[in-house]
Amino acid sequence: MEKVNVKSSRMKKSPRDRLVDIIIHTIAVLMIAAVVYPLWFIIIASFSNPADVANGEVWIWPKHWMLDGYVELFKQSSIWRSYANTIFYTLAGTLVALVVNITAGYAMSRKDMLGRKWINLFYIIPMFISGGLIPIYLVVKDFHLLDSFWVMIVPFSVSSYNIIVARTFFNTSIPEGLWESAQIDGCGTIRYFFQFVIPLSKAIIAVIGLWTAVGIWNSWFNALIYLQNESLQPLQLLLRRILISNQSLLGAATGEMASELRRLSDMMKYASIVVSTLPIMLLYPFLQKYFNQGVMIGAIKE
User: Fold this and answer.
1) What is the pLDDT of residues 61-96, one digit of tens each?
2) How many CB atoms lie within 10 A of CB 183?
3) If you ran DSSP here, which 8-state letter would residue 300 be given?
4) Ramachandran assignment for 255, one of left (phi > 0), alpha (psi -120 to 50 degrees), beta (any other)
5) Are 169 and 208 in contact (CB under 8 A)?
6) Deepest in the core among 2, 13, 50, 60, taking most CB within 10 A?
7) pLDDT tens for residues 178-217?
């Protein structure tokens, strides 16, 4: 009984420690609110009357529920095709990027690779110096990738940053003794990579996969430059075109028509943000555990 009392007395915190805990928790709650509330505001604004939003009458919940923005947005006949294009580009592009960057990162982590230092330098330089838009466009054109779904998947699948992060992960997280033990059992390099390295690399695979998927999902500039065929354009580019078109119509309208167009334009703006970001936001909780682990391990220097 005395031991229990001693243990409980040790666990009691002093007033100063309690004050520090209160300050830390308060700061954490404020930081969470600063991140979560803008997302929540976009969602409730998409269901609200733009006049209520402009007058500051929408804070936690819509004052008047309205679905006009979503109705007008989904009236666009090409939105589902663009949605399907974006999903395909994201899935295929992420898969290709994982295959390229993970294997390259593992190869660069091997100390017995011939010319390892020079290859590392070859990947590091493009992180700071780029060839520019025009040379890249000419290369894409020479490979006959313009107006092709491959242009959204292949040319930009290699990421020097992701390769460096993957290399650091393999150097710090995969013990060299594991490779030596596998060699004793007669395991070759390819079998070792797929049977041992990949199962131990779920964290970095999740991190690079999430980074790549978010980048492809939000990408519109590459589609603007390399895709002229509207049937191949992704969702982000379609939403951009819809919003620009609404602004053009708004500038030409007058009177009550201008007021109605302005209302629909504002609602479609918020609705397009929700439609374009919701799938990625729903994906993140399933990868959060691996994402946090991979970021911390991949950030360790050699």
Assistant:
1) 888 788 887 887 788 778 888 888 999 999 999 999
2) 12
3) S
4) left
5) no
6) 50
7) 888 888 878 888 888 888 889 888 888 888 888 898 889 8
